[in-house]
Amino acid sequence: MVRLKDIAEYVGVSISTVSRVIQNDQTRNVNQETRNKIWQAVKELGYTPNQHARNLVSNRQNKSNARTMKIGWVANPKQAEINPYFSNIYTGIRDTLTGNDYTLISITKDEIENEALLLKTIHDLGIEGLLLIDSIDDSLIDYIQQTIPVVGLDFYYSDKDIAIIDYNREAAIEKVVQHLVSLGHRDIGFIGGGIKEAFQDLNEEPRFKGYQAAMKEAKLSIRDEWVINTRWKMEYSYEGMNQLIKSSAGYLPTAMVCASDLMALAAMRAVIENKLRIPEDVAFFGVDNIEMGKYSSPPLSTVEIPKYEMGKMAAKTIMEMVEEKVVLPIKIILPFELVNRESSSKKRT
C-alpha cells in the first residue's frame, strides 16, 4: 500500500506538504509546481487518499463489493440542453441505463478536474463506471481507470487508450466533399471549430482534416479566406459567413462544408440576408442531421450520425465493463450516411 511517506520521498518534499496538498489545506501555501508534482506522483504511484477508495479497489479485485448501480456522466451541462447532437446521445445513454436498473449521475468537468473533489466525486458517490464526453486531462483518465472503468464518446477520445464509441469524422467529411465535387463544385469552403484550448486549433480537428484530404485528392485548392473557424459558436459562423460575403468582391465559394448542422444553419442565414440563393449561389452541407435541419429554408443536406445509438452503445459498453463481461478497452466506430436535401441538390453547370 502506497503511503504519504512514499509520495514525499518520490517528489522530494516533506510528508506534511504532501498531506496539505491532498487534503486541500489552504492554511499554508504550496506553490503550483510542487502541487502538480505531488498529484502526478499520486497518479503514478496509485495512492488512494481515503479508506473508502481503498475499499472500493479491494472490493473490485475480490468481486465482493455491494453494487450501487450508478454510472457517472461527465459533460458540459449546457451541451445536452442547447445542442440536439448531445441531447440525443444523452437520451440513448439514459434510456439504456434506466432500462437496466442503473442510475445516471451527472458530473461537471470542474468537479472531476479539481484534485480535492476528484476522489469524493468518484468514490464517495459510489460510481461504478464513468462516461466521458467533455474533455479531461489524460493523466486524470489514467488515474480514474485504476479504480473504475471508463468509456469515451466524441472526438476528444478517438485516439485515447480507453473504450471508445464514435464515428469516423474524417471519412464523413471526405464523403461530403466528394459528393459536392461530383455535382460540379470546385470552389469549396469550410466552416467548423477547432480543438484544444478555446477551440482555436483547427488543423488537428478531424472534420477539417477530412476536408483537407478530400480537397487534395480532388486536386482542388483551399483558400484561407474560405475557411471559417467558428470555435463552435453559431454567432461566429453567422458573422464569419457575413464577412466572407461582404469581402469577396463577388468571388464566393460555390459550396460550404460545415462541421455541424448548427454551424451550417447560422451561415445560411447570413447568405439569405445578403440576398443570395441556396444552393444556386452557395450550397451547404452539414453534419449531425439534427431535427431542425429538415425545416430550414431550404432543408439542409447533412450527414446522418447515429446519435441515439452512440449513447445506447456507450451505456451497454460501460455496463459490460462494470459487470466484468468485457475486460479490454473496445473501440466501436458506428456508420454514417449522407442525407441529400435541397441545400445542395443542384448540379453546377
UniProtKB/TrEMBL annotation:
<dbReference type="InterPro" id="IPR046335">
    <property type="entry name" value="LacI/GalR-like_sensor"/>
</dbReference>
<feature type="domain" description="HTH lacI-type">
    <location>
        <begin position="2"/>
        <end position="58"/>
    </location>
</feature>
<dbReference type="InterPro" id="IPR028082">
    <property type="entry name" value="Peripla_BP_I"/>
</dbReference>
<dbReference type="Pfam" id="PF13377">
    <property type="entry name" value="Peripla_BP_3"/>
</dbReference>
<keyword id="KW-0678">Repressor</keyword>
<keyword id="KW-0804">Transcription</keyword>
<dbReference type="InterPro" id="IPR000843">
    <property type="entry name" value="HTH_LacI"/>
</dbReference>
<dbReference type="Pfam" id="PF00356">
    <property type="entry name" value="LacI"/>
</dbReference>
<keyword id="KW-0805">Transcription regulation</keyword>
<dbReference type="GO" id="GO:0000976">
    <property type="term" value="F:transcription cis-regulatory region binding"/>
</dbReference>
<dbReference type="GO" id="GO:0003700">
    <property type="term" value="F:DNA-binding transcription factor activity"/>
</dbReference>
<protein>
    <submittedName>
        <fullName>LacI family transcriptional regulator</fullName>
    </submittedName>
</protein>
<keyword id="KW-0238">DNA-binding</keyword>
<dbReference type="InterPro" id="IPR010982">
    <property type="entry name" value="Lambda_DNA-bd_dom_sf"/>
</dbReference>
